[in-house]
């Protein structure tokens, strides 16, 4: 019988931690490293030392969950993570001795010379991506690998069994500890689960884009983490009169409210907001600790309804 994972308490970060597997406990407040690369997630950052400072502040704040991909840059983001943090430390968190820093990556795409994001789902492309991630992060085994399928912000129909089996095979080889899927439908999640255990799902979701409400609830019942990308709107920041009104009433910012709403939406939601600013990182972490009152939650629940 599957063990249902539950959130645990943490003395350092909003939302505590979530146990994805017996050997995998992540802070629900994570960090998305995509913005550390250059403009349009291509090339090196304008401020190399500033990027390293952000990553070191992530650990200092108690976050043990960094989300990345070797196609950010490409290669740049993972190389920055290695430069800033390797050998990867334990981070103060839900246990007295702290939790090991965990790096969650994804495969399934490439960057071409024009900065486009073509899919890369053939067996050879997936194997190369895994080995590139291992090399650029300085690891022998990857903690979690998400298979990224679908479009930019929505799933596409069809089977994902063939590429997922490739990753499951590499998991058997000991190169990957745990598997997840990204930009998928509920049916594709179930298909992946028929091949190997899935510990997390990473889809486009935020307070104004709530097409995955039923999937989130289903995953929560199974103890599977749901990690929304673009939690603050992504390339098009969230805009809502209701969000702005609630934020003004609570004397905070709309983005803080949006993060706090996600943490309170379901205990299996883990956040990975990204930033290239230490100050903004600290604001995200502090803001996510906001406890929204019931009347505010009711208003916000109606945004997408």
Give the SSE layout:
Elements: E1 7-8, E2 17-21, E3 24-27, E4 31-32, H1 48-60, E5 65-67, H2 76-85, E6 90-91, E7 99-100, E8 102-107, H3 123-137, E9 142-148, H4 161-172, E10 176-182, H5 186-193, E11 200-202, H6 213-222, E12 225-226, H7 241-249, H8 254-265, H9 278-287, H10 294-301
Helix pairs in contact: 1-2, 7-8
Walk me through what this model shows.
The structure is a single chain. α5 (186-193) links the parallel β10 and β11. The two termini are 36 Å apart. The chain is α/β, with parallel strands linked by helices. α1 crosses α2 and α7 (241-249) crosses α8 (254-265). The longest helix has 15 residues, at 123-137. It is 35% helix and 15% strand. It has a seven-stranded parallel sheet, with helices on one face. It has a single domain, classed as TIM Barrel.
What is the name of the CATH superfamily? NADP-dependent oxidoreductase domain
Q: Numbering strands along the chain, what is their spatial order in the largest sheet? A: 4-5-8-9-10-11-12
The CATH topology:
TIM Barrel
The radius of gyration computed from the alpha-carbon positions, rounded to a whole number of angstroms, is: 18 Å
Largest sheet: 7 strands, parallel
Low-confidence stretches: none
Shape: globular
The secondary structure category is: alpha/beta
Per CATH, the architecture is: Alpha-Beta Barrel
The CATH class label is Alpha Beta
Number of helices: 10
Secondary structure tally: strands: 12
How many distinct domains? Answer: 1
Share in β-strands: 5-15%
The termini sit apart by 36 Å
